[in-house]
Every structure is written in structure tokens, then in C-alpha cells.
Amino acid sequence: MINIAIPLQITRNGLLMETDDKRSIDHALSLLIQTACYSWLPDPQYGFILKNLRFEIFNENEGTIFDSVHDDRQTVYHQPLYRMKVTGTSKNVSTFAAELKNAIERYEPRLEQVTATLTYIREERRIYITVKGVIKESHEDYGYETTIKIWK
Fold it and tell me: For 21, phi and psi rounded to 5 degrees?
């Protein structure tokens, strides 16, 4: 695995490399979480599906994204997204945390035993994201935290 620093920085010797595994994984997860699925042509599945719904209406009472289109032309693929809970852990399959865990397992092979938690704080209008796991090479515990401001 090549540890390229993000944001990309070009030096005299090529792209700047990140020598610290934790910081490198932090950069990779930040990029994954900030990228909407279907926005990167070489791999349309890359990204976090919650980012695709940033212009939808957040249903605070249900803890879900409101289905603002809801007509017969909607594809079956998108229907389950509107039933997923924003707050939850990756142990529950009908949560965005489970989607994030799946994306991390697919795109960040340096981590194992991955868990993800998303917590929505209504008063702050933020989603707190916590990712935990183990770095495969060193067997060290790994933790990453970030937030997403709700778009409403």
C-alpha cells in the first residue's frame, strides 16, 4: 500500500509520501467519507453514500433522510436509503454506519476489525462519526473521529 499524503503535494521527488500509518489512514478515511458515491469515474462505488443525499431533507423525528421524490419511477436501489437510520452502529444493518463500515472494509485494506458509529446531535445539527479498528501491519488499535454538518 502506498501512503500518499492527502491533499496531494508534488515535491521534487514526486508525490509527497506520508510516513505515519495512522495519519495516512486518517487521510484515506477523510477522503472516503467526503466523497459522494458515483462521483469518481474510475470506481463509481468509491465514497460514502450519505454524501449523495446532502440535498435531501433530514427527517429529525424518524432519524432518517426524507424521501422527497417518492414516486413509482424511483429505482429499487435508492428505496432502502430512505429507511436507513442516521444514528447507529455498524452492527445494525439498516444504518448509514453499516454502509460506512462496508466502504472502509472495501477501500482501506490496512484496517481490520472495523466498526463505525454515527451519532446525530439535533441541537448542534451535526453527525459525529467514529471509526475503530486495528492496523493490520502493527496490530495497533486505531481510532478516527470526524463530523458532518447537517445540510438543512
Answer: -60, -45
pLDDT band at 59 (very low <50, low <70, confident <90, very high): low
Number of separate domains in the chain? 1
- How high is the pLDDT of residue 73? 45
Is-contact 129 148, C-beta < 8 A?
A: yes
pTM of the predicted model, to two decimals? 0.79
Rounded to an integer, what distance in angstroms lies between the CA atom of residue 45 and that of residue 66? 23
Residue 117 sits at the vertex; the CA angle it makes with 111 and 123, to the nearest 5 degrees, is 145
The three-point CA angle 19-20-23 to 5° equals 120
What CATH number is associated with residue 129?
3.10.450.40
